[in-house]
Records
---
Amino acid sequence: MKDEQILAYFDGRGTVEITLRGREVAQGDRIAAIAFELGYTLHGREVITRGQWRMIYLRDDSPDVRQRAQHTGDRLRAGGPLFPQTRPPVGMPPVPGRQIAPMEAASARQNMTAYETHGSRGLVIIASFLGIAFLLLAWVVREALGGAIALLVAAALMGVVAILTPRWMRNWYEYNRQKVTRFNQQRSQQWGPPPPPAPPPPVRGDGRDSPGRSGS
């Protein structure tokens, strides 16, 4: 799928559904990076078959995201690159750490979403189930001492994995969060911080203090 085809999906509509087939599945991170630039957030990803995915994006209408989408549209209409340069302007010190590429940031955002949606419970359950299965097999083949010991070792390893998985997943989430934070900081050097929220509308009074009234 070419970039022009991907851009055509994110034309301002509220919901975007993209079905990827075969080798197109490998373009998921690039599609997510383009969607980010145009103000869309991944809402869901469905695995229809092993070689067919459906990705659902929703338009984000928050002010800072709309500003980002506007910058992207202006840049593309001017013949600029699809992704902005993250190098700091002349005279501004760079954000500490290595430069994060748009596709890398897109992958990190999807990893964060996966953890926020599913957590680590599923992996803990799988590891625990495997540990129990190894214990049962060790009991079945208990007369074969070597095989039983190997299965008991595997069961113990699965127990350790089940215990440590929540910590590993939290560290993995934090690692991805730091990537996304650094990418946003590098990107904000080009455009500045997001605009403040609009002030609330004035409260309509009863007209006694409105212009043209004497108040008497």
---
Amino acid sequence: MPRRGIDSISNALWIHLTHSRYLRMAANVSWLLITGSVVVAALRIGGLRVEEFPLGRNIDSLLTWLAFMAGLTVADFVSRDNGAVVLIPRLRFMWESGADVRTVVAAVLIGQTAFAVTLVSPGAILLGWAVDGVPFWMAAPIVASTAAATILGGSLSRTTFSQADGSAEPSLASALITFLSAVPAAGTALAPRNIGLIGSVLYTLVLIGIAALCLRRRILHLPSSSSRSQPAM
């Protein structure tokens, strides 16, 4: 098989991602955030100021952890049939068939982080604007970190498929790695806005790099259920 560029591999992985059986559940998270932002904006227009309530005084913290939990939820839905554990046989087959492993890894990371950010960030950013008039831009790196952390956890996990339909549940170790590696992005975002945004972006970039290295190692060196008869996407 001739070498495949990042465009063709990304398209194959993107089609697989957008045909996920869990896509509707992930999309529901986005709709809840957008609906919440519309409701809060309507209340603000009506004269109700959320920041004047006791919980509203910690609105940045609330938005940070809301984006974090929403990102983890979407990443969990994505990983059910598009996580590292599920994709490894296909990714391994792509590499064995001549695709450059760096291209394969980049396609997975770019596709899944972009997917999570696209679903979650708009609602969280709008919610921040609806609450106090300032878009919550830190949602993007926070959500991207949860997607990268999920790939990292799946790359380090030895979990095998646990469902008859080929989907996988994260192991306890994988879930713990995912949570602990994603938390610092949210924690950093709690700093004053400019510092928090820069720190969260930098940490997310580092995390994406580590996830890329671990996924590459899993494809090249760690045992997988791949065989040369595994169909390519």
---
Amino acid sequence: MLSLVLATGQAPACSYIVQAQVTFEPGSAELDRSQVIKLSEWIGRSYAAYPLYTSAAVEAGASGEAPRETRNLARLRAANTARALRMLLRTELPIASASQAYRFPKNRFEESNDFAVVQLYPDVGRLKLPGCNPGLPDELER
């Protein structure tokens, strides 16, 4: 499952973020062909929305009863998703990576704890995007 989410000034940290989520089958750390195609399409839509980015991030999760294996699975998901992202991006960006192990298959906020979230951060300055504080001129906010 992948969807384009554009977060703007409504976010508590007041930032522009383009985000997608990949859901993995339990126990799997590999992106399948359809996930890579959807990730590629999402990247295309992201560049259509904002043509310049400063960085990217991947956060992956895994659920399971064995803590060590679950942590390793989450790390592998993050690494594999970051690798796919690096190959699909149009420009080279720094990609931060994080992973989280869960004991239960899902929490109340997520469809599944077996996921990777990909985020792209638009270059607010070079794109001259409006600031998040409407009461101040943009140059005072940066």
---
Amino acid sequence: MTYRVSFVCTGNICRSPMAESVFRARVEEAGLGDRVEVESAGTGGWHEGDGADPRAVAVLAEHGYGTDHVARRFQASWFARLDLVIALDSGHRKTLRRLAPTEQDAQKVHLLRSYARPSPDDLDVPDPYYGGLDGFEECLEMVEAASEGLLAAVREEMEGRAI
């Protein structure tokens, strides 16, 4: 049985593809690549079919991460196949929980930075789109800081389900 995680931001060209790339690397490093699927999407469809923002790609590459990404919009029907939906900010979380067909689906939605240890006061990952490379670097730092805690939570849930 496969455990499925989807990262969601606004347009699926900055934050969520960065989170997808970093978490996929952590999953592979942990030897769980055959048991955990990682993907991303956006709450809106403005960039559907586009690649990741070149600044996101550059920052990921500079830090040893790859990305082969095509933006897409999150669909409510996906909740049925997903185990965990990771929102990059509280606005995304609110949108996703409203989109969830059931209360059980809404409970699958969590903020990425809630997995960081220690947990920061502000759980939102700021949108770097309208800024420079420093915003993308900051985004990557936040994603990396939360990825280990997220991986631990996924492992724990997988063990509980005997996946």
